[in-house]
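cron nightly-structures :: item 1 of 1
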Amino acid sequence: MALKVYNSLTRIKEEFLPLNPPAVKMYVCGPTVYNFLHVGNFRVYVVFNLVRNWLESQHGYDVTFAMNFTDVDDRIIERSHEEKIPSEEVAEKYIVEFKQDFQALGLRPHEMNPKVTECMPEITDFVKDLVQKEKAYQADGDVLFAIDSFAEYGKLSGRRPEDMIAGTRVEIDQKKKNPMDFALWKSAKPGEPFWESDWGPGRPGWHIECSAMILKHLGEQIDIHGGGMDLIFPHHENEIAQSEACTGKHFVRYWMHNNMLNFSGQKMSKSLGNFITVREFLKTYPAEVYKWMILSVHYRSVCDFGEDAVHRAVGGLAKVYSALAVAESYGAWKAENTNLVAKDPAFDKVADAVWLKAIESLDDDFNTPEAFAALYELIRQFNTQVKRGLKASPQWLAKSLIFKNMVQKIGQPMALFQEQPSVFLRRLDDLLLQKTQLSRAEIDVLVTERSQARAEKNFRRSDELRDQLLAMGISVSDGTDGTHWEVLK
């Protein structure tokens, strides 16, 4: 099947055809490291983790994935003044914190994480080249890119410079030839870090940093450039202008942008104060809850965040892991050698059909909601055919093993469904018990009492206890291996 991706530049889905297959060069804008990242910031890293994994696992590409750290920025300088430590210490501190959160989410490391401060010679060379080609000009120690020198300026965002100038209040800067010209190099100000250059001491503008890092580590042309939709203008628009003005070549083959995360209908941002950091979220919830929330919505759609969304994610994961726990109870996590167990051609056929649907969905611009729908069909079929608590048999083991392997195969590129089901469900149950102020010990007492009533054939008392447990939000099921209980989700 052909993989199709939505290209933000052409505004259509296109077949993915890399420049030099099987090699794929991918770059995603990384964080400005001055604080912990909130749950909205991390959406891009979950999405492009899937993109890289799918390109490799399903299509056999050899992906080189670079994500940068912006370690030179006004906000880093502000934080250094607040904390009274050098800006480089601020940056290193939050790079470490980012990597800790990234690892906690179970995402794969990138092939490279370049830093702006490591690319200063390349940045100044890049700016020098643009000046020599008369695409940029010096003005009072700054160097500005002349957008009038790039005829295609605005092609990514669809904005025309003259309309932006006429339709908005653009701050007048006498140094600029065009009010929309942007800084490539900024002259040093007191109390700020600086580097030497042909134009005097200073530091780079934001946009030139990514272009220079891409040129240094990936070359003049790359296959995929990713980021949030909020970066389309001006950041990515300016990247295109300066990179193509410098090299004369088409910069990026496919531009991919994920949409924003909203909190109760509002865009999540530090300025509005309506955000929660990933670190805070993971103190309460398993990482898979966050990843489920992100991937249950198409990456180009707005993703809502709030109590309802968390509840849906917990319920969705419980549905998957509860079925996996049944498979676990029949030995699916112990039977590693599938050749030693009975076969079930009919259920194998069901699983294969689901896999084809999952491939079709993810090949259609990474349509994860449709892939989840295929997964739900597999769960429905499994739950219909395999019940908890029956006597173990080769037949149940065969179905359980097929089911387990297919769920994990679908989940692997998304970094989902790889946990031990019984352990994961216990953590979910403990989380929900804490919210309802119930204790595992008091539930165990009621479940044990009910089991004794059943053993004594006191079915009236047994039913009363079942109803009491249900009223507490606890579901019980009986089988040959005893009584099993879980929190209703």
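cron nightly-structures :: done
Residues 104 and 229 are 25 Å apart (CA to CA).
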